[in-house]
Amino acid sequence: MRVVHPICCGVDVHKTFLVATIITTTKEGAPIYQKKRFSTFNKSLREFREWLLSNNCHDVCMESTGKYYIPVYNLLENDFNVTVANPKWVAAIKGNKDDVKDSKWIGDLFRVGYVPNSFIPAKPIRILREYTRYRYKLVCCKSSEKNRFQNAFTVCNITLDAVVSDMFGKSATAILDYIVNGESFDPMHCVSLLHRSMLKKADQVVEAVEGFEMTEEQKQRIRFVKSHLGFIESLIEEMDRKIDLMVAPVENAISLLSSIPGLGRSNAITVLSEIGTNMEQFSSSQRLCAWAGLAPSNNQSAGKKKSVRISRAGVYLKPALVQAAHAAVKANASSYYRVKYERIVKRRGKKRAIIAIARMILTAVFHMLKTGEAWNPSDLARFDMPQELFERQQKQAINQAVNFLVKHGVVLPEHIRLPVSA
Q1: Are 102 and 19 in contact (CB under 8 A)?
Q2: Are 188 and 203 spatial neighbours (Cβ–Cβ below 8 Å)?
């Protein structure tokens, strides 16, 4: 086997310690091993760094074990070529493994080039990713609190959610505050709290609320939930302001991606925080889509094709792209993705069609970030053609048809009458 890294190091990282094995290849091609154990405290990690430099080792490979590899990566990324490997590529054989053997096995595979590198973005993008992922968690928490708030009224015999379309609308909020903070229920006062179109449903609103049973303890719990919901909403707003300051250096890329139908500013920031702006990390758009979990897997053995479902990768990127795909197929400004979705959904179903649209969007993101060009698919004219272009192509088609008929003697030139619009 060809040796790719003559001097390299395999690292098996744990929470409190790491085991490193430096492999030096002799002129004859034989490996020489040096093994050492270090703590994951900062002082010991600096000793690990100096040990690598003293042995002239600048190529390091380690397994991506949760978050434990990150402190090691932070210390080495500036001065070393660090490869973070997916565990499935460096998994040792069960029954014949320990910490020392694991580091040696990782080093042996890396030495001959059998370990593909995982995508690790630059530090500013990694920090932005921490913010966007935390914001995603807050949005999920906000949805949970909204459901909890609504269910608190359901168990008290209040079925207002069956009448109003939004339990957090102006009219519904005023009624619920009146119920929680009031001592008694007055139907006439309840009706006076309704606004605009809700006045048409006054009788239904009173019927859905009147006769409820709510103790003071239940009212207090609802106040707790609402207070927590308000805190989460204010925290999300504060996070948005901070994220806007952090993305100032890549504002041009955000504006570029926001031109894609369905991909709003928030989703564009999420996409950039996950994949960065340098597309050289990915060899092609197909590789990027596979990394994001939007490409069918390849699982075939003995001539039999097994499950080809998409992988579970892209835990944060994939939901953002699927959300953008749902918005794109409903966009009024452009029918490009809607036409494609309608064609695919007839053959493959709604779920696969949405995943296909999400992959198209990510493919467009790849090429836009790589070339710096605005969103302009090569087949855009076939699906979303401007009226001016449509008339020009129609005129061209009519002229070609006329010339064809005249050339073959079907009609005479003097008998031809072209339409005025042509």
Answers
A1: yes
A2: no
Tokens of 226: 């609402």
What is d(CA 60, CA 83) in angstroms, rounded to the nearest whole number? Answer: 6
CA 101 to chain centre: 36
CATH number given to 125-246: 1.10.287
* Tens-digit pLDDT profile for residues 130-184: 999 999 999 999 999 999 999 999 888 888 888 888 889 888 899 899 888 888 8
Query: Do the beta carbons of residue 109 and residue 8 sit within 8 Å?
Result: no
Same fold, 7-111 and 125-246: no
Residue 83, φ and ψ in degrees, nearest 5: -110, 120
DSSP secondary-structure letter at 412?
A: -
> CA-CA distances (angstroms) from residue 338 to 262, 281, 333, 335?
11, 31, 11, 5
- Look at the chain and count its residues: 422
Plot region of 115 (φ>0 → left; ψ -120 to 50 → alpha; else → beta): beta
Dihedral sign computed on CA atoms, order 88, 355, 261, 344: positive
Is this prediction's pTM over 0.85? no
Contact 84, 73 (CB under 8 A): yes
The domain ranges of the chain are 7-111, 125-246, 250-298+309-380, 386-422
Q: Are 80 and 20 in contact (CB under 8 A)?
A: no
State which fold the 7-111 domain adopts: Nucleotidyltransferase; domain 5 (3.30.420)
